[in-house]
Amino acid sequence: MATITCDNAEIRGISACLPPDAADNLSRCAAACGPEKASTAVKTTGFRSLRLARPGCGTFDLCLSAARAAMRETGCAPESFGAAIAVSITPGMEMPALSCRLQAALGLPRDIIAVDLRAACAGYAYALHLAAVYAAATGKNVLLADGDVQSHAVRHDDPATLPVLSDAATATIVSPRVPGGVGGAPWLFAFHSDGAGGDALRLPCGGTISMDGFSVFRFVTVDALRFLRGFAAENGITPETADAFVPHQANMYMARRVAQSLGFPPERTWTCDGEFGNPGSASVPLALAWRGRAENPERRRLFLGAFGGGLSASAAVVDLPAGCALSVHDFEYADSAPEERP
Amino acid sequence: MIDKKEFFDFAADVLGVPRGSAGPETAMGSIPQWDSIMHIRLTLELEERFGFQVPLEKIAETRTLGAFLAFAENR
C-alpha cells in the first residue's frame, strides 16, 4: 500500500447544509415497500429519519448555501481562493461543471482552478488530497464542496436504496500551511479501487441508483476493511494516536462495526447517530462538522475511512485545528434559486 | 450454552417462517424470505439476542443457521 503524505495544508472550516425536511424512515418505507420490508430496512440501516430535498432543490443549491456559510464563518474573501473542487455523483448537470457554477455564484476569481471529481462515497478524501495539492500549488485557499441530492435519483419502490440514501452538502475550506509549521501534523492518504465490482452500485446518466446491497456489504466488510486495517497498521494509527475514527455512514451497523474492527469504541467514532441517513461522500465531512462542534475544541487528529461505488475506498488521517470553524445549518428555501434535477 | 431450539425458533421468527421449519441447514437463498437485506437483519438480531458477534469479515460468508450457531456457541 502506498501512503501519500501532505505536510502543507490545513482545514480552516467545514460548514454543512441539510434540507430541513426530515422524513420518518419507517413510515416512508412502509408506504413504498410494505411494513415488513420497512421494518427490516430501518432495523438494518439504523436510520430513523432521512433529510430529503424538495423537488427543484438540487446539489448546487445545497453546496452554494454550505459554501457561503463556510466563507462567512472563516472570513475567507472570494479573492483569497485559488481553486474550487466539487465532489458529487448528482451534480445536476453534466456540463457546465458544478465547480464552475459555484465559482460564478460565489464571485470567486476567474483565474482559479475549478474542477469536478466523481468518486462516489469514498470521494471526500480524494478531494481533500487534491485540495492540499492545489493549496500548496497556488498558495491560496481551496473551496471543497461535497454534496449530493440522491433522493431525486432513487426509485421509490426500491427497498435497497430508499431507506438509505439522503441529501446534504458540505463546504470545506483548505488553506496552505508552512510544511512542518506549528498547528498541524502531516496528512496521510491511501486509496483503493476495484472497478471489476462496479456494477454493485450504479447510477447511469439521467437514470436512477441501483445497489446490489450484498455485494457492497461484502466489499466493505472484506476488501475495504482489509484496506483500512493495512493503512492503519502501516501508519501506526490506533485509538492512542488518533482521537477518533470517522467512517462513511453507509448504514449505522456497518459504520459501528467497521470502527469496532479498527479498535475504535462508539465514543471515539464520529457519526450523526442515524439522524440524517447516508448522504453519500458528504457523510464524512458532515460528521466532522456535526461532531466536531460539540467535542473538545483543541486540535484533533482524525482517521477518515470511506467506501462505496466504484467500487472504491479511501483512508486519511487529517487534523481539525483549534479554532477551526465548524457548523451545520438547515437550507432555507426562500433564498434558493431552483435548478434542474439530476 | 445455547439452547438450540430457542436459537432456531428465534431465527424462524426473524425470517418470518413457521417455528420448527428452521434448522442448521436452513440457508440464505433456500427460502425466499432470506435475501441479502434479511441477511444483515438476521445477523444483527441473532447477535443482539444471543450475545455474540460474527467477525465483520465473516458475515457475508456465514450463510446457514448452523454456521451462525457455531459462532454463537464459540462466543
Structure description:
The complex is a heterodimer of chains A (342) and B (75). Chain A is of the alpha/beta class and 342 residues long. Chain A has eight helices and 15 strands. In chain A, the strands form four sheets. Chain A has a six-stranded mixed β-sheet, sandwiched between helices. Chain A has a five-stranded mixed β-sheet with strand order 1-9-14-13-12, with helices on both faces. In chain A, helix 1 runs antiparallel to helix 2. The mean pLDDT of chain A is 92. Chain B is mainly α. Chain B is 48% helix and 0% strand. The longest helix of chain B has 15 residues, at 36-50. Chain B is globular and about 30 Å long. The N and C termini of chain B lie close together (10 Å). Classes of the chains: A alpha/beta (342), B mainly alpha (75). Chains A and B meet through helix 2, helix 6 and helix 7 of A and helix 2 of B.
